[in-house]
Amino acid sequence: MSGHSKWSSIKHQKGVTDSRRGQLFTKLTREIIVAVREGGNNPEANFRLRLAIQKARDNNMPQDNIERAVKRGAGETEGASLVELVLEGYGPSGAAILVKALTDNRNRTLQDVRNIFSRSGGNLGESGCVAWLFDTKGLIRVVANDLDTETLALEAIDAGAEDVNVEDNQMEIYTKPEELEAVRKALEERKITIASAELAIVPKTTVELEEKAAEQTLKLLDKLEELDEVQHVASNANFPDSVLEKYQLAV
To answer: Where are the beta strands (DSSP E) in 92-221?
Structure first.
């Protein structure tokens, strides 16, 4: 799963670059709005909203933006109604791809996603065709640098983590969704700097891709991520290091 985890880390780095920050804030705003509409505007009583606000802060979203998003979700300001959309399909190599979107126009977003799949050599499938290949997990990223990763991994597991992956100087800590906040808090109490913490869609198993298919699949995934309405894109593709090295240079 090394190639998949490395892609996940590169994607995270790509999402927080200045060139993508405006688009990222749009996605974070949508997540806060829907979280408020689903469970109310009190973060203490709304788990999804707590996570959405914390993710926004992790990405240096201004507090004014966060407050406006909460007010819009609560109906205090006007805005189009957003609906959640889960779309499933396959890349040009047959790798499974799952797309989660928040949109004010279901048909437009469906058509946009369908067009990207077809133009990239993939195809959009029926509901449920690949969702069973993924789990929802809590994902905490830590920049390891000079940290003792073995000790940190043991501390994370003691705090409730299910699994830990170390790739270069990045550490990915996986938890049950309901344990995400507790594990994050435990690590912060140990003075560990958290790069990000979120609910992530994680493949149960991965499929190996050859170089050409990997490049095509990465382009497809990138095009999907570029849609403002798309919040999350997940795949069970495992990418060769040679392809990821080229991909990282383009970040």
So the answer is: 96-103, 123-124, 134-143, 163-167, 170-175, 194-203, 207-208
Q: Which domain holds residue 26?
A: 2-73
Q: How far apart are CA 236 and CA 201, in angstroms?
A: 10
21: left (phi over 0), alpha (psi -120 to 50) or beta: alpha
Partner residues linked to 96 by β-bridges: 90
The DSSP call for residue 77 is S
pTM of the model: 0.86
Confidence of residue 125 (pLDDT cuts 50, 70, 90): very high
- CATH code: domain of residue 196: 3.30.70.980
Please tell me the predicted confidence (pLDDT) of residue 132.
Answer: 96
pLDDT in tens, 181-190: 999 999 889 8
CB 164 within 8 A of CB 156: yes
Domain count, the chain: 3
Kindly state whether residues 149 and 194 are assigned to the same domain: yes
